[in-house]
Design a protein that fits this description.
The complex is a heterodimer.
Chain A lengths: L2 H26 L4 H21 L2 H19 L6 H24 L8 H11 L25 E2 L4 E2 L7 H11 L17 H16 L1 H6 L5 H26 L7 H22 E3 L1 H4 L2 H12 L3 E6 L4 E3 H22 L3 H6 L6 E10 L2 E8 L6 H10 L5 H6 L2 H6 L22 H10 L3 E7 L3 E9 L4 E9 L2 E6 L3 E6 L8 E4 L2 E6 L2 E7 H4 L10 E7 L2 E7 L1 E9 L13 E6 L5 E5 L1 H9 L3 H17 L3 E8 L6 E4 L5 E6 L3 E4 L2 E6 L2 E7 L11 E8 L4 E5 L2 E9 L11 E7 L2 E6 L1 H27 L1
Parallel strand pairs in A: 4-6, 11-20, 15-17, 22-31, 26-28
Antiparallel strand pairs in A: 1-2, 3-5, 6-7, 7-9, 8-9, 10-11, 10-18, 12-16, 13-14, 14-15, 16-17, 19-20, 21-22, 21-29, 23-27, 24-25, 25-26, 27-28, 30-31
Chain B lengths: L2 E9 L2 E6 L3 E5 L14 E7 L2 E7 H4 L13 E7 L2 E7 L1 E9 L12 H4 L4 E4 L4 E5 L1 H6 L9
Parallel strand pairs in B: 2-10, 5-7
Antiparallel strand pairs in B: 1-2, 1-8, 3-6, 4-5, 6-7, 9-10
Classes of the chains: A alpha+beta, B mainly beta.
């Protein structure tokens, strides 16, 4: 395809997205002059470029739309819902034509006179097209008297066109402060669109000159190639490190360490180039909600929060559709009509709140609506009707278990099939899409007051941290995100397995967790020495996987399997380990499906154990236990920790009593948790890395003891700074670390020692 | 005349030809990681210079006897199909022959379907027949089913 055309397509699609958003905003706030000016300018530029490229169909459409927008701007026409709908319709038509252009390289044939006539009629202020000519022309310009002839263009006007002079005047009025006079425009009959495009572009450049200079367009394939190369580099680095570990002399260690750091930083920066704000996936939502609100006769307020939260573009592509689907669902099923809302004592306008934020190595997306919530009784009935459950089983389910039924395939509670949803392809597709990318979806609903769906997805799919385990003599990689905890079973271990209703289970803190044997599931041999159980959680399904050994944790680069192997649901890919061998990556969802198949009786036993725990209503949290100084064990919620690091003490930089570390290209302050704590002087220093909004800090500990999932009731008794209070964990009084306190200290440290340490480094270098 | 290069390989005593253009490399398949639940013909995956290669056993694919103990180390013919790297494990890679593709004799009609789909034809050599493989189909056709869950 022509370079010009392909550039135009990219640009046009971007502009159209912005126009969509701005139009919806403009409709809500008709007084929003900057929004209108922006729309006008974008449509105008689009029209100009189309004219320049000889795309007549697009040009006429854009032109008619522009004329109508011009009327709004001149205040000659009141902004109305119909008018905006009409403009949106023509934008949609433009999109269709552009899609056709993208597919074939030429404008598809078609007739737009319907829209153009409607737009013109609307511009003249009269709904039926026939009356448009009788409307007196308010502009007293001489050109207008010669009907349909434009002296600047030197030809008759095309359908939907306004004279160049008219437009120039209108356009000059839109750009008040910019210094170009309409008089300076060439009077000679040059092609009008080109002459018009110039000033429009220069205006845009004036308003954002810095942004234009600091970014360039790079093809996605180039970025993908870079990512592949970096992945290879990471693998090679891992290999080198492994070889070096087994060597007796350490002359390679310093340069290798440096290579390792640089590789890590390179990986980070390449990852960054792939990062895109999640707002990209939300761009279409305001328009969708507006259209839905009209169609369903509801009042809906869409609140977006955290649009700048960044994630890998591959992940972004994968969640775009599920998110749109969920928002549609909320608008259609979730929110009530104005009358029902008033009756329920709520504001007429329903709110859909979509937010995104980072948490550890994941991104959390939360969709909240203040609608009617899930109707537990109706879902139960529906599930029985669809034959998903027997009546007695359905009655036995707890409320939250019933809610999860909406994720079952073919389930939809919409009483009628609307244009929007209710066709039974719904939340199950959303769930499988989310799970495909290693994400998790959860749902909380209160009948009458709304529903919240929480999605947790990994930031990137390319590189993940994994646990390398051994079963039946083979090694497998298990994504760490899916592993809640690792427990030891077998001879002399704290946990024992038992067989209940023919299903092997382990009793873990009063709950029964069903077990599967990894080797046996994969058709290999059953574990001869069942030593460890990985407690895994997929969605709401918790199960244990028996393995013989736990070998290592490693950052692995995910490589896809060949097509002949992709049908095997328990593997998501393969990776190369440091020693050069290939290891298969376990897909937690695939295992979950296998673990889920068990007799009803066994399931009831598990549920019974779980319910008794649920009744206690104590919040369970995954806590990281650490040993610091001589006092009591300390704990911190695992979710708040970004990474655990073991840093060679030589890499720590000391400055008086303070310490800092060069971490991923930035200087990171390292704090002590306890006053009587000493940083290590040899070997490695374990530390918790906590990433805040703007900076990262390291919290030095003496030893990382354990990770436990436990009910936590914190008794607030701040005996000392940096401790929120104490809680009973595994029967021992444990102090809970106040991370906020340390973040504030780190901030102070950041602004103070940062430059000082750097200065000290410079001196050393000199 | 349209002369093409064919690489001849030996599998279970039989000689087969594969179009040379489809072959990327020839290597010794070592350190194969078995893939549980995969089709019987798939021996596993291995690492070839940073790429993950799926190893498919030609003997199993053709329903021949397994290799005798003490036989020389098998070789693999590297072929890319649909962006994936495969290695066809054969007993021996023999030579390269120049043959006129116009002289390719289509397989007889009575050839069983599972053979017909992987054999586009046969060449008549002075002293024998050379069966040609459609390597991409040989590697992938029908294997997806396997015993996968």
């Amino acid at each position: 395809m022509d370079d010009l055309i392909s550039d135009f397509l990219t640009e046009a699609n971007e502009s159209l997205e912005v126009i969509d958003i701005e139009l919806v905003r403009f409709e809500a706030h008709p007084g929003d002059r900057p929004a209108l000016d922006k729309i006008f300018r974008l449509v105008h530029t689009l029209k100009g470029t189309c004219g320049f490229l000889g795309l007549g169909r697009l040009e006429s459409l854009a032109h008619a739309g522009e004329t109508l927008l011009g009327r709004f701007r001149d205040g000659k026409l009141q902004v109305s819902g119909e008018a905006v709908t009409l403009v949106l319709k023509s934008i949609d038509r433009i999109k269709t034509v552009i899609d056709g252009l993208g597919a074939t390289g030429a404008e598809p044939a078609g007739d737009d006179s319907d829209l153009i006539t409607a737009l013109e009629a609307m511009a003249m202020g009269a709904p039926p097209p026939e009356t448009s000519e009788s409307e007196p022309e308010p502009e007293p310009e001489p050109e207008q008297q010669v009907e349909g002839y434009d002296p600047v263009l030197g030809r008759a006007l095309r359908p939907g066109e306004v004279s160049t002079a008219d437009l120039d005047a209108a356009f000059a009025a839109a750009e008040g402060p910019v210094d170009f006079a309409p008089a300076s425009l060439p009077e000679a009959p040059v092609p009008a669109p080109a002459a018009e495009t110039r000033p429009a572009e220069s205006v845009e450049e004036d308003s954002a000159p810095i942004a234009a200079a600091q970014s360039i367009r790079v093809g996605v394939d180039v970025l993908e190639d870079m990512m592949t190369l970096v992945s290879e580099l990471v693998l090679t680095r891992n290999q080198l490190l492994q070889i070096n570990r087994s060597r007796s002399d350490d002359s390679f260690s310093p340069p290798l360490q440096r290579l390792s750091t640089i590789t890590g930083e390179l990986q980070d920066s390449v990852m960054k180039t792939r990062m895109q704000p999640i707002g990209q996936a939300w761009k279409k939502l305001p328009r969708i909600i507006r259209d839905l609100a009209n169609e369903l006769d509801k009042k809906i307020d869409l609140v977006l929060e955290g649009e700048t939260t960044e994630l890998d573009r591959q992940v972004l592509e994968q969640i775009r559709d599920p998110l749109t689907h969920m928002v549609r669902n909320s608008a259609d099923h979730g929110l009530e009509g104005p009358a029902d809302r008033r009756a329920a004592g709520k504001a007429e306008t329903g709110t859909i709140h979509l937010s995104a934020y980072h948490e550890g190595g994941s991104i959390v997306i939360r969709l909240r609506d203040d609608g009617r919530g899930l109707d537990t009784a109706r879902i139960r009935e529906k599930a029985i009707e669809k034959g998903l459950l027997t009546r007695s089983d359905a009655e036995a389910l707890t409320e939250s278990q019933v809610h999860r039924l909406i994720f079952a395939p073919g389930f939809s509670t919409a009483a009628a099939i609307t244009n929007v949803s209710g066709r039974g392809v719904g939340m199950d597709v959303v769930r499988s899409n989310i799970e495909q990318i290693g994400g998790q979806i959860d749902l909380q609903s209160t009948f009458g007051s709304g529903c919240t769906v929480t999605i947790k997805i990994p930031l990137t799919l390319a590189i993940i941290s994994a646990l390398i385990v051994g079963a039946s003599g083979e090694r497998f990689a298990v994504p760490q995100g899916a592993v809640l905890e690792l427990i030891k079973i077998g001879e002399g271990a704290e946990h024992r397995t038992e067989v209940i209703e023919q299903v092997r289970m382990v009793r873990l803190r009063e709950q029964l967790v069903p077990l599967i044997d990894l080797g046996a599931e994969l058709g290999l041999t059953q574990a001869l020495q069942p030593n460890f159980v990985m407690i895994m959680k997929v969605g709401s399904h918790r199960f244990g996987v028996i393995v013989e050994e736990v070998i290592d944790t490693e950052e692995i680069v995910v490589k896809p399997l060949a097509s002949v192997l992709r049908g095997i649901s328990v593997f998501s890919g393969a990776t190369l380990l440091g020693d050069g061998s290939v290891v298969l990556i376990i897909e937690p969802n695939g295992l979950s499906q296998r673990a889920g198949e068990m007799p009803q009786a066994a399931r009831r036993a598990i549920d019974a154990a779980a319910t008794s725990d649920e009744d206690a209503k104590i919040e369970r949290k995954t806590m990281l236990l650490v040993r610091v100084g001589s006092g009591a064990l300390k704990a911190v919620e695992l979710g708040q920790i970004t990474r655990l690091e073991h840093v060679p003490v030589a890499e720590l930089q000391h400055l008086g009593s303070r310490a800092a570390l060069q971490y991923r290209g930035k200087l990171m302050p390292v704090l002590c948790v306890d006053d009587d704590q000493r940083l290590k002087t040899e070997g490695v220093q374990p530390m918790l890395v906590v990433a805040g909004m703007l900076y990262t800090m390291g919290l030095a500990v003496d030893r990382i003891v354990d990770v436990v999932e436990t009910p936590v009731t914190i008794e607030l008794s701040p005996t000392k700074t940096g401790i929120i209070g104490t809680a009973l964990i595994n029967g021992r009084a444990t102090e809970i670390i106040d991370l906020d306190h340390f973040m504030i200290m780190a901030l102070a440290e950041h602004s103070r020692t940062g430059p000082a340490v750097q200065a000290a480094q410079t001196q050393e270098a000199a | 005349m349209s002369v093409r290069d064919y690489v001849t390989v030996r599998v279970g005593g039989h000689l087969f030809g594969i179009e040379a253009l489809s072959i990327q490399d020839v290597f010794y398949p070592r350190n194969i990681t078995p893939v549980p639940l995969a089709a019987h013909e798939i021996l596993g995956v291995l690492n070839l210079r940073g790429r993950i290669v799926t190893a498919v056993c030609a003997r199993r694919r053709l329903g021949l006897q397994p290799r005798e103990a003490g036989a020389p180390e098998p070789k693999a013919v590297g072929i890319e199909v649909g962006g994936d790297n495969y290695g066809l494990i054969v007993d021996q890679v023999e030579s390269v022959m120049k043959l006129d593709s116009d002289e390719l004799i289509p397989p007889p009609d009575n050839l069983p379907q599972r053979w017909a789909e992987i054999i586009p034809g046969v060449f008549r050599l002075p002293d024998s027949l050379l069966v040609i493989f459609d390597a991409p189909r040989l590697l992938t056709a029908g294997l997806q089913l396997g015993v996968a869950a």
